[in-house]
Design goal:
By secondary structure, the chain is of the alpha+beta class. The protein has 4 helices and 8 strands, in the order H-E-H-E-E-H-E-E-E-E-E-H. 23% of the residues lie in helices and 26% in strands. The protein has a 5-stranded mixed β-sheet with strand order 1-4-5-6-8.
Length: 172
């Protein structure tokens, strides 16, 4: 079992540039940090095996939806409208894939995840609905149901993301 987890983690790291290649063909400068769903609602279980993923036409969370991004906790305070949009999203117990992009260029992928799921996940998650007591705040977390289910490098502090958030005045 442990060997499969290690092999899967290595596969994810090696395939990530190819998996997310679909975002890079679109590059409007100035969009900044955004979280997109996949165009065809690709199941989480298939994301790492794909060589190309297209993102939805519009982000589920855009730079204009972000009030602040707390770097050390990866907490994102978003507008009330964006928070409602995310919390009302239908998320199955096997997750809903998303791609984190800067100027529509892919940085990493993850999944919206329901806290009612009995499945574990070795990736970046946003829990929907959120049980975060801070109003209008979502958190990019590693692994589900806890950090112990995550293997590999943490992509959330990618310098491209932090620079984009800093330039937009969102980084805290």
């Amino acid at each position: 079992m442990k060997k499969r987890v290690i092999a899967a983690s290595i596969s994810i790291m090696l395939l990530a540039p190819f998996i997310l290649g679909g975002c890079s063909s679109q590059n409007p400068k100035g969009e900044g940090f955004a979280i997109y769903l996949t165009r065809d609602n690709i199941p989480v279980s298939q994301m790492e095996a794909l060589s190309h993923v297209e993102i939805a036409d519009t982000p589920v969370i855009s730079n204009k939806d972000i009030v602040t991004y707390t770097e050390d906790k990866h907490e994102i305070k978003i507008t009330a409208e964006a928070y409602d949009r995310v919390m009302q999203m239908e998320v199955s117990t096997s997750g809903k894939s998303f791609v984190v992009c800067v100027d529509k260029g892919p940085i990493y992928w993850g999944a919206f995840w329901t806290p009612y799921s009995s499945q574990s996940f070795d990736g970046v998650t946003i829990r929907v609905p959120s049980f975060n007591e801070q109003e209008n705040t979502i958190t990019l977390e590693l692994g589900y149901p806890s950090l112990s289910f995550y293997q590999g490098e943490d992509p959330r502090s990618n310098p491209v993301i932090m620079e984009s958030l800093e330039k937009a005045g969102k980084l805290k």
